[in-house]
């Protein structure tokens, strides 16, 4: 939402500036996204944005403090929830009003101390490793921006201001930038060339330390993984001859020993039973809601079965549809069982779950090359059982490949069709005439297409991933969103001024002449530095507004009128995972770090604004993700590893950018000094991936640590039951009701 606010502010700023100062082409990507060239009015716009967003941040934090005390079940962590609710309700009559007020005041800001002082290990235990690392990435990004941005402001900015040759009438923000350097001091370009090397070395050192710490956390997370997940593997692309529970158990019993295999469960193609079980659960929930509504309000709840149908009593509708449903499910299951006895491979998918008795056997199974055909017997770690996408696992391999090609083309179409879609919607918006307000409307109309496109983009991408891609678990859709959404923001936010009128034409130009990339970046990016200052300031309000959790709060208040507080809390969670999941949040943070690195030499103030943004994100997410939101399925640091790659990509872009700037602005050969830094960045990329192999648990940890952690009680009453399909597990309740 804050990105939309940014577009509106940028558009208003464009109206206030002289049209001659705008260097972008008509209908270019930069123009459509509201990116404006540096101009005389930028300082006023920046100060206005700074004041406005500071007020919004302060107001949101104050509002969160009071909402947290008023609705502790929505905003507070478990330890403080009972005390806060008791304090606010005033149920402790033995305390004086003075002591209660003092207690409330002391707890109004204790969330800040929780956010700052909580260790990564504690955060990992409470919310998972991905949540803890989301918070730590804010710290890492703020640290990088601080160690390169603060020295730049202390050393480079005064040199640029004193020795630079800013033209008369330039905005005061330009005095602190590299754009003021002219040929009157050519040695300054060599200083900036050396600075490029220093930035690359410093960031590499910071990333190396961060990755070493991540590796320790990853090993600890893998070691503490609970059973049966840690002893269960997902086997995909099983040959047809082995597609049954008994045959699969026999196969792994021969590879290891029969005693090592605890249970095997093939994924069954029971779509019909799954639909009936889902229908049964939905009707039971509707029935319970209708009964609670009648108990509280003495009113009969009505329900419209179809869009154009007549309303009927919900309770009567549910009872009539539930009647005979259990018998239908049992008869269908019996029919499928008879079919399975005739053909054991009938109604089985290509994958299944195998649970072993010991952790070391499961780790060995993941590292085996079982078949000479690499497409068969693919063994991987099992995801969290409650997050598994059983419908995707039921798909055939050929169908999955075909749908993934369609999904990839759909995602590619979003990138290629971005500008045509925005221009089309913009032309429709321009057909509206508002009379005297038409000049203002003409300034805002070009952004309407972008407003609609960007607000729906994460949701559209998630729909594509969940529809066309085969995902083992829903958390993997967040990881796909992290990649594709970052690529979109990198092109249409960070590098939008270099795109021109068509991303396809620009890609062709760079493909035909790769050496033109530095020149393209040098010609466009420096002229938009003031815009990105304002952009980063506007991100402050986005972090603060997430603290309010207005959507979960609204759901909680609505459901609480019918259900109990605990049920209302469960039904109002989690928050929208398309825009507020690990994928989108990591992307937004990564883009801000990229901006801070890319502009650190051209405009150090951009880096400082990124530092403040990431510091605020560290405070908000340090409490919000760890102590307020529900715990999400954990991939154990996959998002973090991808974020490190994005920072290294930002370093590569920074080197290319600075080579182009030094080559364009100076007749000297300062760019020759900076150019080899790109090779250093490539070496850093390879070195970090080879030195810190985080994907799998080292076998020495399996041999000496895991066997001590796992006890016999971890396997009591497990037998792989966590990895049975929900519709098959629900058959037990259907049988019991019989």
TrEMBL record:
Q: How does it sit in the membrane?
A: Multi-pass membrane protein
Superkingdom per UniProt: Eukaryota
> Where would I find the CSC1/OSCA1-like 7TM region domain in this sequence?
405-661
Q: Where in the cell is it found?
A: Membrane
Q: Which residues form the signal peptide?
A: 1-16
Alphabetically sorted, this entry's keywords are: Coiled coil, Membrane, Signal, Transmembrane, Transmembrane helix, Transport
Cite the InterPro entries for this sequence.
Csc1-like, CSC1/OSCA1-like_7TM, CSC1/OSCA1-like_cyt, CSC1/OSCA1-like_N
Residue ranges spanning the membrane: these are 45-71, 137-159, 187-207, 405-428, 448-471, 483-504, 593-617, 638-662, 668-686
Which ranges form a coiled coil? 266-300
Identify the residues that the record assigns to the CSC1/OSCA1-like N-terminal transmembrane domain, covering every copy. 45-209
One matching Pfam family: PHM7_cyt
Q: Where is the CSC1/OSCA1-like cytosolic domain?
A: 232-391
Question: In terms of one coarse class, where is the protein primarily found?
Answer: membrane
Q: Which family does it belong to?
A: Belongs to the CSC1 (TC 1.A.17) family.
Name of the protein in question = Calcium permeable stress-gated cation channel 1 (AtCSC1) (Hyperosmolality-gated Ca2+ permeable channel 1.2) (AtOSCA1.2)
């Amino acid at each position: 939402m804050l990105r939309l606010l940014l577009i509106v502010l940028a558009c208003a700023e464009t109206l206030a500036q002289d049209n001659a100062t705008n260097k972008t082409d008509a209908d270019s990507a930069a123009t459509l996204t509201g990116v404006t060239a540096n101009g005389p009015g930028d300082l006023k716009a920046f100060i206005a944005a700074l004041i406005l967003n500071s007020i919004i941040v302060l107001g949101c934090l104050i509002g969160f403090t009071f909402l947290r005390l008023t609705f502790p079940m929505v905003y507070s962590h478990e330890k403080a929830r009972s005390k806060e609710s008791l304090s606010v309700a005033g149920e402790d009559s033995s305390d004086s009003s003075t002591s209660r007020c003092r207690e409330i005041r002391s707890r109004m800001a204790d969330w800040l101390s929780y956010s700052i002082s909580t260790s990564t290990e504690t955060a990992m235990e409470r919310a998972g490793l991905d949540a803890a690392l989301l918070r730590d990435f804010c710290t890492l990004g703020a640290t990088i921006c601080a160690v390169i941005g603060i020295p730049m402001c202390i050393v480079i900015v005064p040199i640029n201001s004193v020795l630079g040759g800013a033209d008369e009438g330039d905005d005061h923000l330009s005095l602190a930038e590299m754009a003021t350097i002219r040929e009157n001091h050519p040695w300054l370009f060599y200083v900036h060339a050396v600075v490029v090397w220093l930035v690359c070395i410093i960031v590499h050192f910071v990333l190396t330390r961060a990755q070493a710490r991540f590796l320790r956390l990853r090993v600890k997370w893998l070691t503490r993984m609970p059973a049966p997940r840690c002893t269960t593997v997902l086997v995909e692309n099983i040959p047809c001859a082995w597609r049954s529970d008994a045959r699969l158990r026999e196969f792994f019993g021969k590879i290891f020993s029969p005693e090592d295999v605890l249970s095997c469960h093939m994924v069954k193609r029971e779509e019909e039973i799954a639909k009936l079980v889902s229908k049964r659960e939905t009707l039971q929930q509707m029935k319970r809601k209708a009964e609670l509504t009648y108990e509280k309000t003495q009113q009969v709840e009505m329900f419209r079965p179809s869009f154009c149908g007549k309303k009927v009593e919900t309770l009567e509708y549910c009872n009539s549809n539930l009647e005979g449903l259990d018998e239908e499910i049992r008869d269908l299951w019996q029919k499928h069982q008879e079919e399975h006895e005739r053909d054991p491979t009938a109604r089985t998918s290509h994958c299944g779950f195998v649970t072993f008795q010991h952790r070391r056997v499961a780790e060995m199974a993941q590292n085996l090359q079982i078949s000479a055909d690499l497409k068969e017997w693919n063994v991987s770690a099992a995801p969290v059982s409650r997050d598994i996408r059983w419908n995707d696992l039921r798909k055939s391999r050929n169908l999955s490949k075909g749908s993934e090609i369609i999904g990839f083309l759909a995602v590619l179409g979003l990138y290629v069709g971005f500008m045509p879609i925005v221009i089309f919607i913009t032309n429709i918006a321009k057909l509206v005439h508002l009379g005297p307000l038409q000049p203002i409307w003409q300034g805002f109309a070009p952004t309407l297409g972008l407003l609609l496109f960007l607000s729906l983009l994460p949701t559209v991408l998630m729909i594509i991933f969940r529809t066309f891609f085969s995902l083992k678990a829903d958390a993997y859709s967040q990881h796909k969103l992290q990649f594709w959404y970052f690529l979109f923001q990198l092109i249409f936010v960070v590098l939008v001024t270099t795109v021109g009128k068509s991303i396809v034409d620009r890609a062709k130009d760079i493909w035909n002449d790769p050496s033109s990339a530095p020149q393209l970046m040098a010609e466009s990016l420096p002229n938009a530095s003031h815009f990105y200052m304002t952009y980063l300031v506007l991100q402050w309000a986005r972090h603060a507004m997430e603290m309010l959790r207005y959507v979960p709060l609204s759901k909680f208040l609505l459901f609480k009128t019918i259900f109990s507080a605990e049920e209302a809390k469960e039904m109002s969670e989690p928050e929208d995972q398309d825009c507020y999941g690990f994928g989108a949040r990591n992307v937004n943070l990564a883009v801000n770090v990229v901006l801070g690195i890319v502009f650190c030499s051209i405009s150090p103030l951009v880096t400082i604004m990124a530092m403040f943004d990431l510091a605020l994100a560290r405070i908000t997410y340090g409490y919000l993700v760890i102590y307020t939101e529900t715990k999400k399925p954990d991939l154990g640091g996959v998002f973090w590893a991808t974020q490190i790659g994005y920072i290294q990509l930002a370093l590569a872009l920074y080197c290319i950018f600075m080579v182009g700037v030094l080559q364009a602005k100076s007749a000297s050969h300062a760019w020759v000094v900076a150019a080899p830094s790109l090779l250093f960045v490539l070496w850093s990329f390879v070195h970090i991936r080879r030195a810190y192999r985080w994907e799998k648990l080292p076998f020495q940890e399996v041999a000496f640590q895991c066997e001590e952690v796992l006890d016999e009680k971890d396997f009591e009453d497990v037998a792989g039951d966590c990895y049975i399909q929900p519709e098959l597990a629900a058959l037990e309740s259907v049988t019991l009701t019989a």
